[in-house]
Amino acid sequence: MRIGASVLDFATVTDASHIQIDGSGRNRIDADSQGVVGETDLSPSASEQVGGDHPGNESSSGKEGGGGNGGGPVDGNSGNRGSSVNGDSGNRSAVEANQRGWVDAGVIAELREMIGDDGMVLRATELKVYECDGWTIEKSSPEILLRPRTTAEVSAILKLLHRRGIPFVPRGAGTGLSGGCLPLGAPVMICTSRMNHILEVDYTSRRIAVESGVVNLHVTNAVKGRGMMYAPDPSSQVACTIGGNVAENSGGPHTLKYGVTTNHVLGVEMVLPDGEIVELGSPTEECCGYDLVGAIVGSEGTTGIVTRATLKLTRAPEAYRTLLAIFADIENATRAVSAIIAAGIIPGAIEMMDQMIIRAVEAAFHAGLPEDAGAVLIIELDGIAAGLDEHARAVTELVREAGANEVRLARDDAERLILWKARKRAFGAVGRLAPNYATQDGVVPRTRLPDILRAIIEISHRHQLRIGNVFHAGDGNIHPIVLYDERDADETRRAVEAGRDILKACVEMGGSLTGEHGIGVEKMAEMPLIFSPEDLAVMSELRRVFDPDQRANPNKIIPLPGACVEVAAPRRQVAL
Ligand SMILES: Cc1cc2nc3c(=O)[nH]c(=O)nc-3n(C[C@H](O)[C@H](O)[C@H](O)COP(=O)(O)OP(=O)(O)OC[C@H]3O[C@@H](n4cnc5c(N)ncnc54)[C@H](O)[C@@H]3O)c2cc1C
C-alpha cells in the first residue's frame, strides 16, 4: 500500500462510472512548520550549472536553457487547451488565464501576509528569468513568483488560489527539458528553492526524508560518508531538485542498473490544489492498496505541489571499472550495447556520445576524448570488487568483437571522474556549437538503436539541421540535440519539426515519447501517437481525482482532441 496517511476525498471528485477509491483509514496531517535554515536559491542561476558527476561531485558551468531573452506571456492563445480531454473545463480557460490581471492588489496583499516581501518576485524584468526552462522555444512569464519556505506556507498559498480560482505552476530548479514549468495559463509560479532541507536520515532503514527543493546531488552528498547514495543521477544533478525529479520521474546514466525515480520514492507529502496537505505512501517498502505514489511520480506538477519526499538510500558500490570504448562509427557502438546486455552483464551505465558531441566536449573541457572517433561508449561496471575485473575483460572482448578500435580502462578514480565530467557536461558543451539547441528525449527498444540513429541522420538531412547524439544507450533512451538559431524563424520551425519526426520514428519502432524528460508542452501534440482518446480521457480523470478544477500546471501533458501547436515566431511557440 502506498497510501500511508491521506485525506483525499476521492468519492467527491469522481463520478460513479469512473475511478472509485475507498479512502478509509486516512489521517490528516498538520500543516508543517519546519524551521528554515539558510536559503539556497537554485533557480534560475543554479539551473544554468549542470553537469556534475556520479558519485563524485563537482559543480560545473554547463549552460542550459533558462530564459533571459524573449519575454512576455504566450499570447494569441485562441484555443481551449485549459480543458480536460472530455471537454470539462476547469475554473477558467487558458485563454482567460493567459490574460494578465489575475494577481490583483488584494491577492498580493494576502500573499505578502503569508510569505513576506522576500518570498515574492513581481518585477517584470526579474520574472523574465522564469519564462522558460531548458525547452527554450516556448516562453511565457508568470505574473508573480512565490518562494514559500514551508509546507504550511504552500498550503496557505494554494488555499488562497483555490478561493480565487487562480491556476498555478510548480517550479523546482527550472532544468526541465520539455517546458514542464512553463507558465501557460498559470499566472502564479510557486518555486521550491527555499524548501531545501534534509529532514531525517535513517541509515538502518536506508531512507532519507527531504524537502522537495533539495538538489538531487545534495542527497548523495549528505550520506556518502556512510557509504550510501541516492541512485537516480540525472546529468543535471548539481541543480535539479527532488521535487522536479519526482514530477518528471527522472532517470540518469546509472538508472540502467538502479532504476528511475519511481523505484526510489517511498512516500511523498504534497499539497493538493485546494491547499489540503496529504501524505501518500509509506515508510515501509511493502504496502497494499492503490499505488498513489506511483501516480504522483511522473505527473509533472499536474496534481499539486510535492513538499517532501521519503527516498530510498542505496549502498554505494564498493568498486567501479569504467571503460571508454572508441568506435569509428555509431552503428557498431550501438551493436556493442546490445551485445553487452545479451551476454547477461548489466553495467551501472552505458552512455554514448557521437562525433559532434565528442568534439564539442573536447573543445570545452579537454577531457582527452578521441576527436576523430565516430562514437564512444562510457561503460561503467560497479558492485563488489570481486568479479569486476572479469566482467571488465568480458565487456572489452564484446565491444572489440562489435568493432571497437580501442578500449581504455580508467586507471583510477581521477580518470573515471574525468570521463563522467565529460559526459555530464556534454549538454553544456553544445552551447558552443549553435546559438540554440533543443534536447529531444525518445525511447526505442535497445535493438533498434542503429535504426533510430539512421533515421535521425535522415531527418537531419531532410530538415537541413545539425543533430548530435548523447544518450543513455543502455536504456534505449535517446537524446538527439537539434541545433538551431532562434533568430531564424524558418530554422526554428524546422527544429521543432525535426523533433517531432524523431519522436514519430521512435513510436514506429515500438518505442515511446519520453524516457525521462516528460511530456510538458513540448510533446503534447504527440501523445495521440501512443494513446487513444479513451486512454487520454482516463488520464484526465485520474488527474481530476487530485485536481478537479485543473488549476495545477494547466495545459500540460494531455492534449485536447484536435489541438495542435504551431511555431508562430522564432522565439515563441504558441499553443493553438
Ligand atoms: C543539462 C541537463 C541534463 C539533464 N539530464 C537529465 C537526465 O540525465 N535525466 C533526466 O531525467 N533528466 C535530465 N534533465 C532534465 C531535468 O533536469 C529533469 O527533468 C529534472 O528532474 C527537473 O528538475 P527541476 O527541479 O529543474 O524541475 P523543473 O524544471 O523546475 O520542473 C519540472 C517539472 O516538475 C514540476 N515540479 C517541480 N517541482 C515540483 C514540486 N515540488 N511538486 C510538483 N511538481 C513540481 C514542474 O511543474 C515541471 O512540470 C537534464 C536537464 C539538463 C538541463
Report on this model:
The protein is built from 17 helices and 22 strands. The protein is 29% helix and 18% strand. The strands form 6 sheets. The chain has a 7-stranded antiparallel sheet with strand order 15-12-14-13-18-20-16, sandwiched between helices. A 5-stranded antiparallel sheet has the order 5-6-10-8-9. Strands 1-2-4-3 form a 4-stranded mixed sheet. The chain has 576 residues and is an alpha+beta fold. Mean pLDDT is 83; it is low at 1-97 and 564-576. It starts with 9 loop residues before the first helix and ends with a strand. It binds flavin-adenine dinucleotide. Flavin-adenine dinucleotide is lined by residues 47, 50, 62, 64, 133-134, 169-177, 180-181, 192, 212, 234-236, 240-241, 243-245, 247-248, 250-252, 300-301, 305-306, 427, 516-517, 553. The site of flavin-adenine dinucleotide has 40 residues, from strand 3, helix 7 and strand 10.
List keywords for this structure.
576 residues; alpha+beta; seven-stranded antiparallel beta sheet; five-stranded antiparallel beta sheet; 29% helix; disordered N terminus; binds flavin-adenine dinucleotide
> Unreliable runs, pLDDT <50, ≥5 residues?
1-97, 564-576
Helix content: 25-40%
Estimate the strand proportion.
Answer: 15-25%
Quick one: how many beta strands? 22
- Helical/strand content category: alpha+beta
Which term fits the overall shape?
globular
How are the SSEs ordered, and which strands pair?
Layout: H1 10-13, H2 94-98, H3 105-115, E1 120-121, H4 124-127, E2 144-146, H5 151-164, E3 168-171, E4 188-191, E5 198-202, E6 207-211, H6 216-223, E7 228-229, H7 242-248, H8 255-258, E8 265-271, E9 277-281, H9 292-296, E10 305-312, E11 314-315, E12 319-327, H10 330-342, E13 349-354, H11 355-365, E14 375-383, H12 388-401, E15 406-409, H13 413-424, H14 426-430, E16 436-439, E17 442-443, H15 449-462, E18 467-471, E19 477-478, E20 480-484, H16 489-508, H17 533-546, E21 565-569, E22 572-575
Helix pairs in contact: 3-5, 10-12, 10-15, 15-16
